């Protein structure tokens, strides 16, 4: 049993109240959650054992839910094996069987289950489909907005035209559409959409003047006070400057008078009129105690020398900063008089009223379009679930009563990322008889772009600490992941940058990381921070030798930065690998920590970055540099080679008269022509389309016969596809192309083949979902894909990563959440914060509403409303807060070593930002300095490297090594191969070596020549048994290296008797199971009637029908497994075909034959049944063997390999984990869960 800390015990054992667990990075929150569930299922002296069906466990992602189920299953099996009480043992075994169906899922998946169970409460058609991703949703949104807009235009609605004009730029009228879509995103995630929309208008409403409104008192004046405090901060810096030297005292009267003026303004804000504040800020007269103007001190440079000159310049600079800040305050909020502000707000009020009207019509039209297509999106799941939970049937809220009675505890993981609507759902499930267990970390709330509401966490965090609050706050600060060097480094940074206002939490002792794991002193845990500095006047050109291919646009300087950092990362990886860098691996099987040290592997390294924009370049550069790499959340899915080939093929199937797609296919591996052949074809007809040139080449007498034959074969194949596409679905067309061209197998053999094959499978699945959404036709599908790219909705590549792949992992910070790696390289510390939403003409905030800019349609001059200024400032603080939390997540992914790579083209300005800070008594950096930070580089620099005045620096306490590395663009070392010039003598020697190598050549894939390229699952079913049972007799492998079953059925003419075999009975039984109606539990008469129908249809003989044990089939459907099938019948696929391309080395590893790493065998089989659930796949296989308790283990061994192989294949095909693998022995009425064994 693990040794729990006191706080962990509190989180595991506390009952009878709501609990909020604030779990720092590496504190083992998932382990705690699983242990709490396990303890509740086991029960104790004070609590009866709980049923897992009575727990709701909501996770943030499907992957997290699946991981939790898998870990819970392991814990339950262990507990069941150790249980001595027969009743507890039986109870735990039951829970094991129920885990796959348990309510451990995302909140969206739970909402879906609510809808499926209680759809009738809101009169919803249950035959809906969930939109597969945001792309389909965006396209329907576009359609909805177009219909609404066209309706307004058809009516010549002046108010709508004015609204459109206000948000239109000189390039398009899409401005209003963008505002409508953004408003929708905020409204739909609010707990009360209609009330939130109404609230948008109230922010602009007032009676006599806006200065009498709540907005003025609650939002406006506090913002002015904050800005005055920022001015005071600048002035305080001037006073500090004046105190440094007696000469500088001459400036003190100005500084002190400014301080007094600011104090008076701040104190009297509430009683001063808007006009008085405006005039004071505009004139800003500095008067002494006698009411006389304070004169500026005039000093001639000639009178100054040395440090005095510097002090004068610093004082002048302080004055410039102060006046610029004051002018900005005036321009933002006081440029117009009170009357002018009132008038502008009246105009804005009318625009907002119209905007809300249009928004509601858009939302209704969007809902109507989805309803007509029988689809729901993820937001709909939440709203429909709320409607059901609040809906009444015969005066009772039957759904709410059901779930409140069902759930004894509501467990919410990643609570800091819950949005307002999701909180409302949890509220509706809560009651006096159940409690909430919420786990999260406000420091890791990084999903503001999805309207996560971290304030929900902070509110409970503050409330639960109060002595009179009955609920419990548990702080988990022990970090069992990272080294003490990383913990100290992280604590130093966030103690200085986090507080309630920026970051949403005070990073006090309770929030700081406490090291919970000890690394041996012999391993390197030093943190590295390298900034590459490009001089301002340096040329940003770089040589072709070091060029990194990138199809995205960017400045030359940006490309230089990208090239520099990627090259630096690659170089550092090589240095670490080549030096034999040691990793402390706590999971190694050794008692002494000193023996848990091993050499670094590529898979120990993760490269993190803020965005995915560098991914394509990283893969390209690392591949050339021989660094194996896996991108786990890649962008540019449609830019991959295999997808471009397939899209080109689909384009010419739709219309072959398209030059670029046609040439792309001819040049691709599908046809395999080279440039010379393509040029030769073009010469047959230079003027018309390339397809016309192909036709001309075919009839030309001068054409090459071999090339003609190649073209004929291709055109015949193309015509076949064109005909097939007219009669079949797009998905079937795509699969036909895969099968007949061998493209799927081809790309599997390319570098990154697993990922490429997954990409092609994803296209097939995309076509399936497209047609399920009532879209039809190949031409429309191609247009759909093009529209996705126009909308920048490029699909992320499906993840084919495996834990045992020895590759460097590349991912975004968001993608890394919840993961850990021995070494983390943060690639671009200089990547700027995303302030697009802050600086936009229209800004949004979930609490403050919407701030708009008014446009004069005649002059096109724009005026930002006061509301826009207030909300923009709020948005800026929220954005910086989230960027800080992203930095926290990034740094806490590392276990042993952090390597941070940055870049600057102005090191002087960078160091100035780092040095220009003030620390309060809690070591917190002043707010203005923090808000001036441009990137992670600044946050780390000002927190750990302020005033170091050195290009190299080592902090012993933080184990932080800093280097500023000057570079010239193009000067980085590369791994290019330089080919030396050779003399004729050397060339002759090389020629001899070449001739000898040809004569001595041995084909490296010789074994593949003698090996079948195809295996059935049944032929190799023993291959995937458990490792300790894995064996294959040599005599079962024939001379063509094919696994055989060991015996063959005799030909019928050699069989004396016509006796029905067991195999025939088994096949007949499978046929009945395949045809069985699953909408209800079948009774004996149902089975018998089906058998008779099959006889009547000539699918079974009467003699064979008599041999079928109908009662055993009834027993099967009445079993727990059978009921799972009946309950989820819409998700069941029977007789499911699956194929997998396997390495020959793995397949024939027990033979003497030597196979190349790249040799592949196609394995094919058909599985009896597949249940596709939200959280994963359950597979099942019926067996008609004569099973008994004596031979059951033997039969399990016999068939487990077969089912294991099915599981591997189906997991790849469906891109989901397998959560259940069942053998059902019909003659024994016994289900065997292979995952439980």
From TrEMBL:
Superkingdom of source: Bacteria
Swiss-Prot/TrEMBL keywords: ATP-binding, DNA damage, DNA repair, DNA-binding, Exonuclease, Helicase, Hydrolase, Isomerase, Nuclease, Nucleotide-binding
SUPFAM superfamilies the UniProt entry points to: P-loop containing nucleoside triphosphate hydrolases, Restriction endonuclease-like
UniProt catalytic activity: Couples ATP hydrolysis with the unwinding of duplex DNA by translocating in the 3'-5' direction; ATP + H2O = ADP + phosphate + H(+)
Binding of ATP, residues: 23-30
GO cellular component: cytosol; DNA helicase complex
Entries under Gene3D superfamilies matching the protein: 3.90.320.10, P-loop containing nucleotide triphosphate hydrolases (3.40.50.300)
EC number assigned by the record: 3.1.-.-, 5.6.2.4
Any one Gene Ontology BP term: double-strand break repair via homologous recombination
Matching Pfam families: PDDEXK_1, UvrD-helicase, UvrD_C
UniProt keyword Ribosomal protein, yes or no: no
Cofactors, names only: Mg(2+)
Gene Ontology molecular function, alphabetical: 3'-5' DNA helicase activity; 3'-5' exonuclease activity; ATP binding; ATP hydrolysis activity; double-stranded DNA binding
Residues of the UvrD-like helicase ATP-binding domain: 2-483
UvrD-like helicase C-terminal domain span: 520-818
UniProt xrefs under HAMAP family: AddA (MF_01451)
SUBUNIT field: Heterodimer of AddA and AddB/RexB.
Protein family: Belongs to the helicase family. AddA subfamily.
Function statement: The heterodimer acts as both an ATP-dependent DNA helicase and an ATP-dependent, dual-direction single-stranded exonuclease. Recognizes the chi site generating a DNA molecule suitable for the initiation of homologous recombination. The AddA nuclease domain is required for chi fragment generation; this subunit has the helicase and 3' -> 5' nuclease activities.
Protein name, as recorded: ATP-dependent helicase/nuclease subunit A
